[in-house]
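User: Predict the full complex structure for these chains.
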Amino acid sequence: MSPRRVTLADVAKAAGVSRTTASLVLSGRGRELRISQDVEQRVLRAAEELQYRPNIVSVGLRTGISRTIGFVSDTVATSRLAGDMIKGALEAARERGFMLFIGETEGDAELERLLLQAMHDRQVDGLILASMFTRTITVPKAVTAALTPLPAVLLNALPDRPTPLPAVLPDEIEAGRHAARVLLDAGHRDGVYLIGAGPGPGDVPQQSVAAAERLAGIHEALGEAGVKVAGARTCPDWLPEYGLAATRDLLRTVRPRALICFNDRIAMGAYQALDDFGLKVPADVSVVSFDDHPIASWVRPRLTTVALPHYELGRKAVDVLFAEIERDRADAGRPGRVHRVPMPVRARESVARPPAAEPLG
Amino acid sequence: MSPRRVTLADVAKAAGVSRTTASLVLSGRGRELRISQDVEQRVLRAAEELQYRPNIVSVGLRTGISRTIGFVSDTVATSRLAGDMIKGALEAARERGFMLFIGETEGDAELERLLLQAMHDRQVDGLILASMFTRTITVPKAVTAALTPLPAVLLNALPDRPTPLPAVLPDEIEAGRHAARVLLDAGHRDGVYLIGAGPGPGDVPQQSVAAAERLAGIHEALGEAGVKVAGARTCPDWLPEYGLAATRDLLRTVRPRALICFNDRIAMGAYQALDDFGLKVPADVSVVSFDDHPIASWVRPRLTTVALPHYELGRKAVDVLFAEIERDRADAGRPGRVHRVPMPVRARESVARPPAAEPLG
DNA sequence: GTCCGTTGCTAAATCGGGTTAGCGCCCGAT
DNA sequence: ATCGGGCGCTAACCCGATTTAGCAACGGAC
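Assistant: Here is the predicted structure of the four-chain assembly.
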C-alpha cells in the first residue's frame, strides 16, 4: 500500500552496484576510494531519479549523529518576549541541516532531568540551555558529567559556578551605558532617576544579571560625564503595576527630568504615573528603557529603549554550539568563554532636551 | 573514556539471559510469552541497577516510531502571542513521552517543503500544522499525499479545500457572542460600534476566519436582543496605530457608548483615541475586545476581553493528533472534524452601564 | 520406549545506513 | 609461468533495539 521510502538498497539496485558503493559515492568518499567515474555517475543519477534521501534515524543509529540539537529553557520557549530567540536558533540550525527539539523545565529540576534524558535518548548532538531572563543558573549534572561531554551552550544565562560551558549573553553593561548616553546626549545632567533598581549596586532583584549589569553600565557612563544618579526606586517585579507604583512614589517628593526604567513594562507603568501627575513625556520628563518589547512602539510617545537582541542571541548560541561540537575535544576543561551580543538603541520619541526650569528634588 | 550507554545487551548479560528475553520482559510481553517469574525479576532488577533506558533512535529504526511530533507553523512558534500554544502542545506531548520538533516556514512554500522533508527524514509520528492567526491555508501536498498518510492536524487554521485532516480552532463565533453579551448584560442597547471589521460580513480582512466569525457572533447575539450595530470602522491591519486612526475617525462624527474592538491591540489604539477626545473608559464609553494579549491587563482601566485560549489550543491539537495516530486507518478519507476550543471572557474594568445621556450619533 | 504437547527460552533476521577488510582482475616485472 | 601490486568494487559486520521462528527439556499418554 504505502510505497516504502526509497532506501540506499533501491539506489544501489537501480545503479547496478552494491550498497557499499552507493554509500561511498553518496557520502562523497567515492573519489578517495577509487570509484570509477562511470559508476559514480550511475549512482548519482539513480539517487536523483528515485529522489533518494537518507533516513536520518538510521544514520543516527550508526554514527551517533542525529543532526538535531536540543533547546531547553526554563520558560523562554513560550515567553512572548523571547520567541525570537527560538527563531534565531531555528534558522541558524536549519542552515546547517539541523532540527531543534524544544523543551521547557518550568524551573523544575526533576522535569529538567527528564527532559535532558529524553533528549539524550534521542541522541541530540548538542544542547542549548536557555533562560527567560538573564541570570545565573545551576548547570544540571547531566550536562556537566565529564563522562558524557555533550556539547552545550548557556543562553541568556551564566553558570553559578565555574564550568567549561560557553555562554551567550546580551551585552547588558554596554546597554546600561547606551541608556545613560542617550540622556547625556540630549543634554541631561540633573534629575536623572532610576525605576526598577538602584541606586546602589545592591538594590537589584535576586539573581538578575541584567539588573546588576545595566545598573553598572548606567553608573559608568554617567560617572564619565560627571553626572550622578539623583535617586532610584526598586520594584518587586518588573511589571507595569510596580513601575506605576514606584514612579508615583517618586513623584510624590520630586520632579525628575529623566527616568531610566529597567524595562519597558516598568516604563509603561511610569508613563501612567507621569500622566497621573500631569507630566508630559518627553517635554517634562524624558524616559529611556530596556528590552524593546512590542509595547515600546505602541505607547505614545513611542519609547526610546535599548533592545534585547533575541534573534541574534538565538543565532549566536547555535553558532557557538557548532563551534563547540566541531571543537577538538582535546582542549576541554578550560572555562567556557562568555560571548556578548550587542544591544542596540532604538531611538524614538520619549527623550528630549531637559526643560529649562529647575527640578524640584 | 566515555563509558558507553547501557544497552539492552548489557542488561541481558547482567541478568544472564538473551537480548530477546530481556526485550520481551522490558516491553511487558514477558507474561504472554511465558517468561518465568524468576527471569522476569532478574531482568527487571538488572535494568534498574544499570539504569537502562532504551535508545529511542534504535527503536525508531526498528519500529518506525520515533516518539516525536513535528510542529510546523508559518510563524506562530516565535510569535509573542502564541508561545502558549507551543507550551500546551509541549506539555501534552511530554505527558505521552513525546518530543516536539519545531519548524517555521515564514509562509515560504519551498521552506515548508524542506521542513516537512526534514521531519519526514527523522520519522516523526505526526504533524501539527499551525498558523499564527486563524485563517485558511493550503495544505502542503507532502501531507495530503494519500501514499504516506502521516497523521496531521491543523491548528488555528482551516484547509482551503476539503481534506481528511482534522482542525483545531478557537470558537470565534461564540467569542463574538460573548463580546456582544458582555455589553448587553451591562445594559447597552444603542451606540455600539465595531473597530477592526464590519459592519457588513464582507468588511473583513482577507483570509481571516477570526474576523468573519467574531463578526457573525456579534451580529447574532446582538440580533437576538433586538440590538443593531450602530456603525463600524475597518483597519488595514489589526495594530494599535490603525485602531487609533479608526477610532479617531469614528469620534469625529459620533459619540459611541460602547466599542467592540476586534483585538486588544486595536483596543489599545482606541484607548488612546478616546483619551484624545477626553472620553473616559468605561464611564463614557465601554470597550470590549478579543485575544487577552498581555497588554489587556497592563492598560488602565484593564481591558475586558475574550481570551484566545492558546495553551488549550496547543494541548487540544496534540490530543487530536494522538487520536489520529491511534485511529484505525480503515476509516481514512472522510473529511476531518473541526474541533472548537472555547474562548473565555476575561471580565475586567473597561465595561460599565451606558451613561444616561443620549448618544450623538 | 516412542510420540506429542507444553513450557521457557534463544538464534537469527530486520530496520537502513556506515565502515572495514579484502576479493578478483589486470598489468607489468622477474 | 609466477609474482607483486594497484585498481575497482563488494561481503560482511556494526549500531541497538524488536520480532519471528524454532529449539531443548520435560512430562504424560499409549
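Residues 17-21, 24, 33-36, 39, 58, 60-64 of chain B lie near DNA strand C (CB under 10 Å from a C1').
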